[in-house]
Design a protein that fits this description.
The complex is a heterodimer of chains A (about 475) and B (about 300). In chain A, α5 packs across α6 and α10 runs antiparallel to α11. Chain A has about 475 residues and is an all-alpha fold. Chain A is built from 21 helices and two strands. The two termini of chain A are about 40 Å apart. Chain B has 13 helices and eleven strands. Classes of the chains: A mainly alpha (about 475), B alpha/beta (about 300). Chains A and B meet through α14, α15, α16, α17 and α21 of A and α4, α5, α6, α7 and α8 of B. The complex binds adenosine-5'-triphosphate and magnesium ion.
């Protein structure tokens, strides 16, 4: 809410009554008294901020009616929704200010409740099984539309977020070209299934293309990571940003191979199994694809969970905390960074591969930098370094625009997506910087950083003498 | 070079079963020479102390020894217990010409296959040298136990595949690592505090935790950078006992310390640095009597400005 902040700072001047004879204007002195209250000022800035958001995301004006952008958003039922949201925001801020410490304690108490209540292993596995059963059964009762959202928008992005979580959350590296590996996976799938103009030595079933797509993305990750991860912090972000652009431009310009912006001429085949007399083809229906994705996501979750609580995961935490201390404790920092980077890259490639085979069609315009940023937002929103965070963050944030879309009152337009996400992220950073479901380690880091011990941000150089 | 009455080169370069041999080390940052022609040896099992006024170059010396700084000249050789001799800084024969093209890779005789060696800090640790830092550097968001375990795991072999699939070897190493970490916490007297966050420990405990983490990497040589700085007298006594016990397990100790009482009671030999030069070396009794040392210390504390800075 930088907007509301800006509004708040300009308010006293804008709303100040004229410095004339006040006695003759009782109405204005009433206003002044009201505005003297901090709560009222804050309420006004919240509502104004949300109204600005309403105008920004509202209908566009046209040359013949230049003001219709404003009138269309402000004199419309939609404005009421945003004013209501402004009140909600104000209530949250006010409650937090009044009961700050206690509110925080309460929210910690709630979020740590599962950990306290479920202490034995059986109960924990029981809960995992119940969640899994829910994930299996619930989509069956959903409409065609939501099933499609579940596969295209949520399933794939959960996988992407899980991969980026290794890079950003575990190892603390900022990767802004994450989607490049997704593109590599997708094009590998297209190549090995014979959809591109250049043909592979042998055409494979998409299932056999999975390891090859993963390998291609992993190799790209190592080749890109090994030289750049020697450098500190921000360089990696810049190099990966460039790499993302390069991959997209190469995919566009390599018309003869990739089909460029119009995509390959032939369709990428769907998954199919032919084992021991069982023949099954994943067709256009979404539900079978959902179960395939669910299976892969569960495998990735189990594997990454083991990784997090292993020698490797602890080494990543050590590097994130203090690189120099980690090095002198015998940790090969470069090796572990390249490892995290390439594990992230291969997960991204895997997701790209799955997605390409599901939609059957790819083109170079899909792999934009915005998509990389989106996945990063999912990870930050969910809580860096936390597997449940990555899953829930991706699911909630990817579901959210579709929720807005099906409720006409919001008047959601696709091109405004990042305005909403930006606003949401700002609110998030103010109230819960550690993310929705933070990992315990990350939460501690942020807590310590707030008290001035260490940095929660692995990008910056650790302080002190070497 | 020096005004010492005892023969400095002789006392700094001892004979016998050496663990490190440091020859003519020179380190400078731009125009500032921090270490000048430093030569010294350490015997295996010895507790050796490096003392000197503030800014003498003691920490820089440690940083050279652990591969953090790259000295311009000189050599450091580490002799491991197994009989292997590894240069940390210096040159050795390496067939690849590429190595000569690395920054600072050209050394005399490069055309005969001699290449510069600058061992990375984690490699130095693997050779058998562990260290602590003047300002403790713990992993603050990890518990005391996890801090030690990171050190212990430096000697383990679980890779990403093993970790992902929780292979039998991974599980075995995990159990062994847990046991070893608890053992080490016990050794430094922090067993009860294993589950506390490193950042929440009192100062003296942080120092000891850092020692436990360093010991976890199974070093043959332990470098301690002012371990007693900022601790109270009781903690100092504990620390002296701890260092004695570490030494008792066969680990050589190289100690930087300002507290003279501690140094005199622990060290078998003392090296005195001043302005990057070795000005004296010998047994505690010899060093105490050395006029160059007296002058370096008294000279420093006589000047009011330098004395004021010493209090920082
Ligand atoms: N990275 C560096 N860049 C530039 N100068 C440095 C660097 N590191 C150390 N120095 C300089 O080297 C000199 C020696 O520093 P060093 O930290 O080794 O002293 P010290 O003997 O450990 O002192 P203290 O007792 O205060 O810890 C100082 O003048 C310091 O400013
Ligand atoms: Mg120092």
């Amino acid at each position: 809410m930088t907007l509301s902040g800006a509004a708040a700072s300009t308010l006293p001047g804008a709303q100040a009554p004229p410095q004339g004879p006040v006695t003759g204007q009782p109405r204005l002195s009433w206003l002044r008294r009201l505005m003297g209250s901090e709560d009222a000022r804050r309420l006004l800035s919240c509502v104004l901020g949300l109204l600005v958001l309403a105008v920004m995301t509202g209908p566009e004006g046209s040359a013949s009616a230049p003001l219709s952008g404003f009138t269309g958003s402000l004199f419309h039922l939609r404005a009421l929704v945003f004013i209501g949201l402004g009140f909600v925001l104000w209530a949250v801020i006010t409650l937090r200010r009044r009961f700050g410490e206690r509110a925080r304690q309460a929210s910690d108490w709630v979020s740590s409740a599962p950990r306290r209540l479920v202490t034995n292993r059986q109960a924990r596995y029981g809960i995992y099984l119940a969640l899994l059963a829910f994930a299996v059964v619930y989509p069956m009762v959903l409409s065609q539309f939501w099933q499609n959202v579940l596969v295209d928008q949520i399933g794939i992005y959960v996988l992407l977020a899980l991969g980026l979580n290794v890079v950003v959350g575990y190892a603390g590296l900022l990767d802004l070209g994450y989607i490049a590996f997704y593109a590599l996976g997708a094009y590998s799938a297209a190549y090995w299934t014979g959809a591109l103009a250049v043909h592979p030595p042998i055409t494979l079933n998409p299932f056999w293309a999975i390891p090859l797509a993963i390998l291609a993305a992993m190799l790209a990750g190592v080749v890109l990571g090994a030289p750049t991860l020697r450098l500190r912090g921000d360089y990696l972000a810049i190099v990966t940003l460039g790499f993302g652009e390069i991959i997209q431009i190469v995919a566009t310009n390599l018309q003869g191979v990739t089909g460029g912006a119009s995509g390959p001429a032939s369709v990428i085949p769907h998954f199919s199994v032919h084992v021991l007399g069982v023949h099954y083809r994943w067709g256009l229906a979404d539900l079978p694809y959902y179960y395939l994705l669910l299976g892969f996501v569960v495998i990735v979750l189990v594997v990454f969970h083991s990784l997090e609580n292993s020698r490797v995961g602890r080494a990543w935490t050590a590097i994130r905390e203090d690189e120099i201390a980690a090095e002198s404790a015998g940790i090969n920092v470069l090796k572990y960074k390249v490892l995290a980077f390439s594990i992230g890259a291969s997960t991204s490639g895997f997701a790209g591969m799955l997605w390409a085979s599901q939609v059957g069609y790819i083109d170079s315009t899909l792999f934009t930098v915005q998509l990389s940023i989106l996945v990063l937002v999912l990870v930050i929103f969910g809580g860096m370094g936390s597997l449940p965070g990555a899953v829930v963050g991706a699911a909630v944030l990817q579901w959210f625009p579709w929720f807005l879309r099906v409720h006409p009152l919001f008047g959601f337009q696709q091109q405004d997506l990042f305005i909403y996400l930006g606003a949401l992220l700002i609110v998030m950073m103010i109230f819960r910087p550690e993310g929705l479901l933070p990992s315990r380690r990350r939460k501690r880091e942020i807590g310590l950083a707030e008290h001035g011990i260490g940095t929660a941000d692995a990008m910056s150089e650790p302080g002190g003498e070497p | 070079m020096s005004t010492a009455t005892i023969d400095v080169p002789h006392a700094a370069r001892v004979e016998g079963d050496l663990i490190t041999a440091i020859e003519n080390l020179t380190l400078s940052f731009g125009g500032l020479t921090v270490l000048y022609d430093v030569s010294l040896n350490q015997r295996r099992g010895e507790i050796l102390a490096v003392i000197g006024p503030n800014g003498a170059g003691k920490t820089s010396f440690f940083n050279c020894l652990t591969g953090v700084y790259k000295p311009q000249e000189g050599s450091i050789v580490f002799h491991s217990r197994s009989g292997r001799t590894s240069p940390i800084v210096g040159s050795k024969k390496h067939p690849l010409l590429v190595r000569a093209l690395e920054p600072g890779g050209i050394v005399p005789g490069w055309w005969m296959g001699w290449r510069a060696v600058n061992t990375k800090p984690h490699r130095v640790n693997h050779l058998g040298i562990a260290r602590t830092f003047q300002t403790t550097r713990l992993f603050n968001a990890l518990t005391a136990f996890e801090n030690v375990k990171v050190g212990v795991e430096a000697r383990q072999h679980t890779g990403p595949i093993g970790a992902m699939l929780r292979l039998p070897r991974t599980r075995r190493e995990e159990r062994e690592g847990d046991a070893r970490a608890i053992e080490l916490l016990d050794f430094v007297g922090l067993r009860e505090r294993g589950n506390e966050l490193a950042s929440s420990l009192p100062f003296g405990d942080r120092r000891r935790l850092e020692i436990a983490r360093a010991l976890g990497t199974q070093p043959e040589l332990l470098l301690l950078d002012e371990p007693a700085a900022g601790t109270n007298p009781a903690e100092k006594l504990d620390l002296a006992q701890l260092i004695q016990r570490v030494s008792g397990t066969g680990v050589s100790v190289l100690l930087i310390e300002h507290d003279m009482g501690l140094v005199m009671s622990l060290a078998e030999r003392i090296i005195v640095l001043n302005f990057g030069r070795v000005i004296a070396a010998g047994t505690p009794a010899q060093v105490q009597r050395d006029p160059a040392v007296v002058e370096a210390y008294l000279g420093a504390s006589h000047k009011p400005v330098a004395g004021g800075e010493e209090g920082q």
